[in-house]
Design a protein that fits this description.
Distance between the termini: 51 Å
Shape: globular
Largest sheet: 5 strands, antiparallel
Helix content: 10-25%
Structural class: mainly beta
Number of helices: 4
Number of strands: 14
Strand content: over 45%
Oligomer: single chain
Order of helices and strands: HHEEHEEHEEEEEEEEEE
Number of domains: 2
Radius of gyration: 23 Å
């Protein structure tokens, strides 16, 4: 390994000549660490090499500057838009950052999963790279399914369909999807919530702040909230005022 590093310094042009380069690459995703290296967890449909490391090769003198550029604009767990140049051969690294900024809103990523709407499956739906966290009944026939990946959550609402003859499981049809970015510390996604108005044909779930001083059945510090229309199974954002959530025991 020492010989190879010495060779890289003594023959920089040879190294570069064998290196693939992508200029003016624009990538969006969640900033995270993978195997100790800072990189983007790219949005679905992103360009090749968007998951390149910001740490750089050991011989790359610009790596400290690149990391500072990224972390000055985005923190780990936040969505980020990066424009720049990537190089590498087998393993790829950002070598130049032209622009970087924090981006908000879950909607652009949510749109990437809209193709799931209308999908029918018997039993849990398998979504590549996402971990199934279970789900539950909102109000018959509307259910929810929850998936997790690198601290982000994907919520599916599903419509229970009549069981087919000789089928092992009841089929479900996806009615809507929602992507929730990585939650900050002490924030939790909760599906046991009371809407501010009673006698409404909807169910509410929310992101709430939880700490040791808060009663788990009276969570009022609601940061984001959504309603599920039980007539259509669709999800839409709602104001957080007046919503009370609880965490089921156990």
């Amino acid at each position: 390994m020492k010989f190879l590093i010495a060779t890289a310094f003594s023959l920089p042009f040879a190294v570069i000549s064998n290196t693939a380069t992508a200029k003016n690459l624009t990538c969006t995703g969640v900033l995270a660490r993978n195997n100790g290296e800072l990189q983007l967890m790219p949005d679905p449909g992103s360009a090749l090499w968007c998951d390149a490391s910001f740490e750089g090769e050991k011989w790359q003198v610009t790596k400290a500057k690149i990391v500072k550029q990224i972390t000055a604009a985005c923190s780990e767990g936040e969505r980020c838009r990066v424009v720049g140049e990537v190089q590498g051969h087998g393993v790829f690294y950002w070598v130049k950052i032209t622009a970087v900024r924090k981006i908000s809103s879950d909607q652009p990523q949510t749109d990437s999963y809209k193709h799931l709407i209308g999908t029918e499956s018997e039993g849990p739906l398998v979504i590549a790279d996402w971990n199934n966290q279970g789900g539950g009944l909102l109000d018959s026939p509307v259910w929810y399914a929850l998936y997790e990946r690198n601290g982000a959550y994907l919520v599916l609402t599903e419509w229970a369909l009549p069981r087919k003859p000789d089928a092992t499981h009841s089929p479900f049809r996806v009615t809507d999807v929602l992507l929730i970015s990585t939650l900050e510390e002490r924030l939790r996604l909760v599906f046991e919530c009371q809407p501010p108005r009673t006698n409404v044909f909807e169910k509410v779930f929310a992101v709430v702040r939880v700490d040791s001083r808060t009663s788990p059945d009276r969570l009022r510090d609601v940061r984001k909230a959504w309603k599920v229309d039980l007539g259509s199974g669709t999800i839409s954002p709602i104001p957080t005022v007046g919503i009370i959530c609880s965490i089921p025991a156990g």
